[in-house]
Amino acid sequence: PAGFTQHMRRMGDTVTRLDRTEPDLNQNVPGDPRDTTSPAAMAKSAATLVYGDYLNADYRHMLRNWLIDSETGRARIRAGLPPAWIAGDKTGTCGTAYNDVAFVEAPDGDKFMVAAYLDRPTVTDDAADALLAEVGRAIVENPPE
To answer: Mean pLDDT, to the nearest integer, of 113-138?
Structure first.
């Protein structure tokens, strides 16, 4: 965990931290700063890996393909995107949180990195996934600048 946190600092991420290993890090106690990040920090770090030059081209390509091939997020952000859009993501779920970090590419070439986190939503499972799919729809309808 300490090595991961140090690596994130070297990438310029001053927020993301890992303090414990599985399965202990899946506890999501309100106010506990351990094993945390923010959507903004995660989007920036993920963009550095997917679109930046932090990784060499072969590793960027490999990571991109892993994210596209991942099936865990097909009902989340990607579910709100039209079929012509390209996206790949990494999800996280631990009972009281539903998260998705995705790269999204429009047919016109616009590229976005998106991190959407639901912490202690009043809905569960399919309804939480549907809320995250709304994030994808919002990107299509009102692309960020």
So the answer is: 94
